[in-house]
Amino acid sequence: MAGLAPSLLSADFAELKEEIRKVEEGGADFLHLDVMDGNFVPNITFGPPVIKSLRKVSTLPFDVHLMIDRPERYIGDFVNAGADILTVHAEATIHLNRTIQAIKSEGIKAGVSLNPSTPLNVLDYVLEDLDLVLIMTVNPGFGGQSFIKAMEDKIRTLRKMIDEKNLDVILEIDGGVNLENAKHLKELGVDMIVAGSAVFGAEDITARTQEFKKIIE
């Protein structure tokens, strides 16, 4: 069974409390929060103060995706803001193992994200320490992009790596997910699907969340 993590990147920022309520009612499993710094990716979103405010209005696990340079500088800030899972990009930190251990020492789950062109072998010496691996299926920075089909082999390979080592690691993907490809992605071995515009762009967000859940469960 796969889960759904709606991405707030595509939500109406003037109505975040209400938008969160709608996906909660639809059965969302995680809430995916994309933090962008305008440096690692060409966009700027929000930081710990916004996440701290949202923490007061939602009981969903906060799946915080740091698309920022040197994320190790802000681990404590995001933990204090209410992150349940903190995912950093392998490309954004020099000492990946140290950063993972710093996250785990705070008592929350640690994830690593890989850009489309980043090979899986960067996980060779850290996979056993992770709770989640996020495969980017678009180039990060903006919502509403098309799924990069070449990522299907990457997903299959990672699924095999996790299973062969018998690890309890969530395989998550983010980018270009819609109702048409969600079932196929689940069949490839994805555990958690991040969907932004495909959820929050719907006329009825709760119903769309339920549609996704029905397809991937």
TrEMBL record:
SUPFAM superfamilies: Ribulose-phoshate binding barrel (SSF51366). Coiled coil: none annotated. The keyword S-adenosyl-L-methionine does not apply. One of its GO terms (biological process) is pentose-phosphate shunt. This is Ribulose-phosphate 3-epimerase. Belongs to the ribulose-phosphate 3-epimerase family. A divalent metal cation binds at residues 32, 34, 65, 174. Its EC number is 5.1.3.1. It is an enzyme of class 5 (isomerase). Its cofactor is Fe(2+); Zn(2+); a divalent metal cation; Co(2+). Binds 1 divalent metal cation per subunit. Substrate binds at residues 7, 65, 141-144, 174-176, 196-197. Gene3D superfamilies: Aldolase class I. One of its GO terms (molecular function) is metal ion binding. The lineage of its organism: Bacteria, Bacillati, Bacillota, Tissierellia, Tissierellales. One of its GO terms (cellular component) is cytoplasm. Catalyzes the reversible epimerization of D-ribulose 5-phosphate to D-xylulose 5-phosphate. Pfam families: Ribul_P_3_epim.
